[in-house]
Here is the input.
Amino acid sequence: MNLFFKAAVEEAKKGLSEGGIPIGSVLVKEGEIIGRGHNRRVQKGSCVLHGEMDALENAGRLTAQEYRRCELYTTLSPCSMCCGAILLYEIPKVIIGESQTFLGDEELLKSRGVEIELLDDQECVEMMTQFIDENPKLWNEDIGE
Here is the structure.
């Protein structure tokens, strides 16, 4: 398992251990993790702290040129909000753990030139499947059903 993707999975597990939704993300610039995050909607009572948004927030302010030299690793296919941030900051590549339990707006990203790498990681699938089975109400709140 890639070191950066492993860090995203660790973030997802951290979120789960805190009572939140197990989705993690890391922002990598030129081979170095500059932002880590996990879904903290539950922990912070937030409507926007998805894993990707938390990683971007924790990376701090960057210039447009810096974002364009980044890759974003995430354990789950990014939702519309997170895809919007990826497009806004022109992050050129997104590595996704899985999209079986939730398929976000990957096609939108591709249509705008973002390179997508889908790993189909079984650990991520199992983590999300178990979470959804055990927490359907919370999961449906997060995805809007």
